[in-house]
Write a structure and sequence with these properties.
Helix 6 runs antiparallel to helix 7, helix 9 crosses helix 13 and helix 10 packs antiparallel against helix 12. The chain folds into 2 domains: 169 residues, Rossmann fold (3-Layer(aba) Sandwich); 198 residues, Dehydroquinate synthase-like - alpha domain (Dehydroquinate synthase-like, alpha domain), CATH 1.20.1090.10. The protein is built from 15 helices and 9 strands. The model has no long low-confidence stretch (mean pLDDT 93). The chain is globular, with a radius of gyration of 20 Å. The protein is an alpha/beta fold. Strands 1-9-6-4-2-3 form a 6-stranded parallel sheet, with helices on both faces. The chain has a 3-stranded mixed sheet with strand order 5-8-7. Helix content is 49%, strand content 12%. A hairpin with a 4-residue loop joins strand 7 and strand 8.
């Protein structure tokens, strides 16, 4: 049996942020809590959002203390503010951290704490406040997923909450909000979207529904990520990347990711690396390891990147997907050598153990993997 779930409404296109106020009014809501980070609050990105709410007569308050890898401490502070305002809808604006924080704030306003009761799958008892999620990066796909990741400061690890109560009511994709994203962040967030699409596509839980979304996302990223990186004002490339990230998000929340994300969580925590960067440089090494488990799909990935696969032996054609990703990383100036990020072989056994503890991710990987496999992968790419 296959089940595919997702958000009920997606609005996309240049300038579609202007529709925000009307979307709030359609839900019969009047008091919006905007969740973002300090950078977003002080940029012009906030202006079209608040202007649209003002035109619709929707009052609003802002919680802007979101930081990268938000923690439960932040969540507790936010609830103090939001309870005073008595919001009836939550609007998340920003990258993955802001959108994940918005999800958790929405459920904590209707569920009794502490929030760490809700880690894991389907542990959130009641729906949260309705949400509209608006990404300002093309990478996480969080605007259409039922997943929220928070830092558990007690153990120093990232933990996920997965529940259909974390789906937004509306995902609003306006490429204008991504035009100011610097090239480095464009590269790493775009690569994160590619990792989502590839891991979901080749994973054991893939379906005809997720395959369709993922292959389209891979094709679009292969074509447009370099262009968005080279010229951030290219609205065609920005729109394509935002839509591709959304497609991948729609898919992977129905399949999970795989070994790349499991390793990225462990490596990122150990060496304090941004999530998108970690998933990016790990990708070719994990693809090479997984190729033999699902060669047909890796061949399709190579073809999506424009590699010539005609008349090639199956394994060689599949490995062209790895070459294509390395070529992309080179063009984006992202090294795929672990040594460039301070990695040390003395840590590899611990990283391998931590990676394999991410059971939900490992369960979707197309090739069975052991701790020694992970150590070998890391050593081969030091």
């Amino acid at each position: 049996m296959q089940i595919f779930s997702n958000v009920p409404r997606i609005i996309s296109g240049l300038g579609c942020i202007d529709a925000l106020g009307d979307e709030v009014k359609k839900m019969n809501r009047a008091k919006a809590l905007i969740v973002c980070d300090q950078g977003i609050k002080h940029l012009s990105l906030m202006t079209p959002l608040t202007d649209s709410l003002d035109r619709a007569g929707v009052s609003h308050a802002v919680f802007s203390d979101v930081q990268s890898d938000p923690s439960l401490d932040l969540l507790n502070r936010s609830c103090e503010i939001t309870n005073d305002f008595a919001a009836d809808i939550v609007i998340g604006l920003g990258g993955g951290s802001a959108l994940d924080a918005a999800k958790l704030i929405s459920i904590m306003l209707t569920n009794k704490g502490p929030a760490d009761l809700y880690y894991g799958i389907d542990n959130i008892p009641e729906p949260g406040l309705p949400m509209i999620l608006i990404p300002t990066t093309a990478g996480t796909g969080s605007e259409v997923t039922n997943i929220s990741v928070m830092e558990d400061s007690k153990v120093g690890l990232k933990k996920a909450m997965i529940s259909d109560h974390l789906y937004s009511k509306v995902a609003l994709l306006d490429p204008n909000l991504t035009l100011g994203l610097p090239p480095r962040l464009t590269a790493t967030t775009g690569m994160d979207a590619l990792v989502h699409a590839i891991e979901s596509y080749v994973g054991v839980h893939a379906s005809v529904f997720t395959d369709t979304l993922n292959l389209q996302a891979i094709t679009m990223i292969a074509r447009y990520l370099r262009q968005a990186y080279a010229n951030g004002q290219n609205t065609v490339a920005r729109e394509a990347m935002l839509n591709a990230s959304c497609l991948a998000g729609m898919a992977f929340c129905n399949t999970q990711n795989g070994l790349d994300h499991a390793m990225a969580l462990a490596i990122g925590s150990k060496y304090h690396l941004p999530h998108g960067l970690a998933t990016a440089f790990i990708l070719p090494m994990v693809m090479k390891f997984n190729c033999i488990a699902n060669p047909d799909k890796f061949i399709n990935i190579a073809a999506a990147f424009g590699e010539d696969i005609e008349d090639m032996p199956e394994h060689e054609a599949a490995l062209l997907s790895v070459k294509a990703v390395k070529d992309l990383l080179n063009d984006l100036n992202i090294s795929y050598k672990l040594g460039d990020y301070g990695a040390d072989a003395v840590h590899f056994e611990g990283i391998a153990k931590a990676a394999l503890s991410a059971g939900q991710l490992i369960s979707n990987n197309p090739r069975q993997v052991t701790e020694q496999d992970v150590v070998n992968i890391l050593k081969a790419n030091l």
